[in-house]
Amino acid sequence: MGTLPVDDTLLVAYVDDELDVATHRRIADLVEQEPAVRARVAMFRRSSDLLRSALSDHNYISVPEQLAGRVTKMLKRNLS
After folding, report:
1. How many domains, in total, are found in the chain?
2. Does pTM top 0.70 for this prediction?
3. Is the CB of residue 53 less than 8 Å from the CB of residue 20?
4. Which 8-state DSSP code applies to residue 6?
5. Residues 19-41: pLDDT tens digits?
6. End-to-end Cα spacing for the chain
7. Which domain holds residue 49?
C-alpha cells in the first residue's frame, strides 16, 4: 500500500464508494490480499446494509409537520 494509511475511516469511504478511482483500486487490491482487511470491509458493508434497512421505513424518513415547524421556528429565532 505504500504510504497510504488504511484505517476504518478509509475503509468506510471505500464501502460507501467515496474514494477517487486510484485510491479505490488500491483498497480493492488490499481487500483481495489481506483477510483482516476483507473482514473489516465485510463488517462495514453489513453495518451499512442494516442501517439502510432500519431506516427504510417511511416513519424514519419523513418528519412530522408539527415537529418540522417547531424546528424551523427555533432555527429562525437562533439565527436572528
Report:
1. 1
2. no
3. no
4. -
5. 999 999 999 999 999 999 999 99
6. 50
7. 8-79
Q: Determine, yes or no, domain membership for 3.
A: no
Residue 21 lies in a domain: yes
Tell me the CB-side half-sphere exposure of residue 23, using CA atoms within 13 A: 14
**CB of 48 closer than 8 Å to CB of 31:** no
Please, which residues have CB within 8 angstroms of residue 33's CB and are 6 or more apart in sequence?
none
The answer to whether residue 54 sits within a structural domain is yes
Q: Is 34 part of any domain?
A: yes
The per-residue pLDDT for range 38-72, each reduced to its tens digit, is 999 999 999 999 988 887 776 666 778 899 899 99
For residue 66, give the H/E element and its range: helix 65-79
Residues 6+ apart with CB under 8 A from 17: 24
